[in-house]
């Protein structure tokens, strides 16, 4: 901080600096500004994945170093995990969650966003309120909903008033997955709606005006203007939702717990990992399972990026050059845009 | 392809459209149908949360006998006993420390590295961006087991620092994705003007970039704070000592220890969610604004 202020204070001195001096200085700036972030990121995000790959080859209880206190077992952990029926079930459940959340949330989120994109009094308040579930933590959502959904809980009492005999929402394996999908949708739909709203608001009003002049009705406009132009936002949301679903842990672990989740048929890859890894003290095995989850997520993410998302999100690992080109183009565009904006402001 | 192009063009004209928009006169009342569906939506979203809050005002027998009822009569004992318990305040303190430290760390480091990626033209900038945006694909879950061992080997297990550092690292990708487009959209002319006036690159960063990127910074800061406030998995692994617990762990422990005392659990739970809710409600507009900026890119 001190150097920065110093630099600002002595402008004359800097202007006479030679070119090579400027370049060295620039490199130092780059280093100082980016080193802390990169260091932290490498240490806590990248290193654990590498370590995990290494630990995954050992049968190891987590004390000392695996090569001394553990036993090298090669790919045995991976084979055991992939052959374990309860891990297979967990993978299946995870993919049910991935697909289920997309199918339930996408249409609802678009409809709700359309609704809240109308201009009317009180819209701001409603927008804030629908975000409430997203802001409340998984632990609290889990605690609250598991009370509501008990066999003799509030939901079933309300249903009883209508003469419906409510099921055992949480423990019945036939219903538990459905319940989980409901909880997930309730918790995360606010985020989807806000994202879609943001996307809708960047659609220029002129398009709708033109369509109205041409005599298009409300739904026709939504179908031929809003939906196509919302596609980039939708693609990003699908990506975020899929990645989130693949990692699903908190809600299941809190509502169903370690063991019930398996019997109720809602265990996920992550709950299996925690139960068999840290829960059982088998850190080598847990790391192997983590790596399997990592690879599954990576393959899905990269495939999605390559075939679907690459138009929207640059910086994709798969194609840097094109991304670079696009960044340059976009920066140029942004500059022009900003200039126009400032110009109109001056007016 | 065509849709993408149209989308890009739409972004171009966004500013003018928006400017025309905001000046427009009073918002009208909506159609009754709009209100009806909005209210249904709001009811679905808010009722379970209200159930937790109201449940704290009831007694256990009220809850057992009539789960879906309202408090009758209202009792404040549950809230009072949570307010007077040390454990709640300790956990609130821990959550606040971790949340604020994570937020500051993420924002400071994030804006520094975003500035490098967005404004310095050098060979590795796209690579750095790719590195961090790849991190977005891997939330903590996939690395949690080795991450925990690493934290333990660094001697940070059971300490708040053992939460803060990894949370900063995992918060960076999101922050960078949101901030880089913000910083790229600062016009070059501004930087040139600044340089002509005798500013250095860093001077430009300090005097122009930081103030100009405040909307993005606010968005990422609040999202990070709320994320940290609600974090469950990392504290579950790292913290073993009750005096170090953050609120989510506290809520879970409290609800398993007092499993018969439902009303008390509900009171504890609703007080634990309040700070994040308030913080979010206050800054809600800023978040949506910031997201709009990020998503359009």
Evaluate the radius of gyration of chain B. 24 Å
CATH architecture of the largest domain in chain B: Orthogonal Bundle
Largest sheet of chain B: none
What's the CATH topology name of the domain at 85-279 in chain A?
A: MetI-like fold
CATH homologous superfamily of the domain at 85-279 in chain A, by name? MetI-like
Tell me, what's the shape of chain B? globular
What is the total tally of β strands of chain B?
A: 0
In round numbers, the mean pLDDT of chain A is 81
Beta fraction of chain A: under 5%
Count of helical regions of chain A: 18
Report the uncertain regions of chain B. Answer: 1-24
Strand order of the largest sheet of chain A: 1-2
Radius of gyration of chain A: 26 Å
The oligomeric status of these chains comes to heterodimer
Element string of chain A (H = helix, E = strand): HHHEHEHHHHHHHHHHHHHH
> What would CATH call the class of the largest domain in chain B?
Mainly Alpha
GO cellular component, one term (chain A): plasma membrane
Membrane topology (chain A): Multi-pass membrane protein
Biased composition (Polar residues) (chain A): 1-10
InterPro entries (chain A): ABC_transporter_permease (IPR051393), MetI-like (IPR000515), MetI-like_sf (IPR035906)
């Amino acid at each position: 901080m001190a150097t920065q202020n110093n630099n600002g204070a002595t402008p004359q001195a800097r202007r006479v600096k030679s070119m090579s001096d400027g370049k060295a200085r620039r490199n130092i700036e780059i280093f100082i500004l980016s080193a802390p972030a990169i260091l932290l990121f490498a240490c806590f995000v990248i290193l654990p994945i590498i370590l995990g790959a290494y630990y995954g080859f050992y049968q190891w209880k987590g004390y000392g170093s695996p090569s001394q206190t553990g036993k090298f077992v090669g790919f045995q952990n991976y084979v055991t995990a992939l052959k374990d029926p309860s891990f297979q079930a967990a993978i299946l459940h995870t993919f049910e969650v991935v697909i289920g959340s997309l199918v339930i949330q996408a249409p609802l989120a678009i409809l709700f966003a359309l609704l809240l994109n109308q201009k009317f009094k009180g819209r701001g308040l409603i927008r804030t309120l629908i975000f409430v579930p997203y802001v409340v933590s998984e632990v609290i959502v889990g605690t609250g909903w598991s009370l509501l959904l008990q066999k003799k809980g509030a939901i079933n009492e309300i249903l009883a008033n209508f003469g419906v005999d409510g099921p055992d929402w949480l423990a019945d394996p036939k219903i538990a997955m459905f319940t989980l999908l409901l909880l997930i949708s309730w918790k995360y739909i606010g985020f989807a709606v806000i994202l879609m709203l943001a996307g809708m608001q960047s659609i220029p009003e002129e398009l709708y005006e033109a369509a109205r002049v041409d005599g298009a009705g409300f739904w026709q406009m939504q179908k031929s203007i809003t939906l196509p132009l919302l596609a980039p936002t939708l693609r990003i949301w699908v990506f975020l939702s899929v990645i989130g679903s693949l990692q699903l842990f908190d809600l299941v672990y809190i509502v169903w717990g370690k063991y019930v989740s398996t019997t109720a048929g809602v265990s996920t890859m992550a709950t299996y990992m925690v139960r068999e890894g840290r829960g059982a003290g088998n850190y080598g095995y847990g790391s192997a399972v983590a790596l399997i989850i990592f690879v599954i997520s990576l393959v899905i993410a990269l495939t999605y990026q390559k075939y679907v998302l690459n138009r929207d999100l640059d910086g994709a690992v798969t194609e840097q050059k094109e991304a670079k080109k696009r960044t340059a183009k976009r920066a140029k565009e942004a500059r022009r845009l900003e200039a126009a904006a400032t110009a109109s402001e001056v007016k | 392809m065509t849709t993408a192009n149209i989308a890009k063009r739409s972004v171009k004209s966004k500013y003018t459209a928006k400017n025309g928009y905001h000046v427009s006169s009073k918002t009208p009342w909506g159609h009754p149908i709009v209100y009806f569906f909005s209210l249904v939506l709001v009811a679905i979203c808010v009722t379970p949360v209200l159930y937790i809050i109201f449940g704290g005002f009831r007694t256990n027998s009220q809850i057992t006998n009539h789960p879906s009822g309202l408090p009758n009569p209202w009792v404040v004992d549950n809230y009072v006993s949570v307010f007077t318990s040390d454990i709640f305040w300790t956990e609130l303190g821990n959550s606040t420390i971790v949340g604020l430290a994570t937020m500051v760390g993420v924002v400071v480091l994030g804006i520094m590295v975003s500035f490098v990626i967005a404004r310095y033209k050098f060979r590795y900038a796209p690579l750095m961006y790719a590195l961090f945006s790849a991190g977005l694909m891997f939330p903590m879950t996939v690395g949690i087991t080795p991450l925990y061992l690493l934290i333990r080997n660094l001697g940070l297990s059971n300490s708040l620092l053992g939460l803060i550092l990894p949370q900063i690292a995992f918060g960076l990708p999101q922050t960078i994705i949101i901030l880089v487009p913000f910083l790229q959209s600062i016009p070059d002319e501004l930087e040139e003007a600044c340089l002509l006036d005798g500013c250095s690159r860093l001077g430009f960063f300090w005097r122009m970039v930081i103030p100009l990127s405040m909307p993005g910074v606010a968005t990422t800061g609040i999202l990070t704070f709320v994320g940290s406030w609600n974090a469950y998995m990392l504290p579950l692994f790292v913290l073993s000592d009750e005096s170090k617990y953050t609120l989510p762990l506290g809520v879970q422990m409290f609800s398993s220890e007092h499993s018969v005392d439902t009303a008390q659990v509900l009171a504890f739970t609703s007080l634990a969610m309040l700070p994040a809710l308030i913080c979010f409600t206050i800054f809600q507009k800023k978040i949506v604004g910031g997201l709009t900026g990020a998503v359009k890119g």
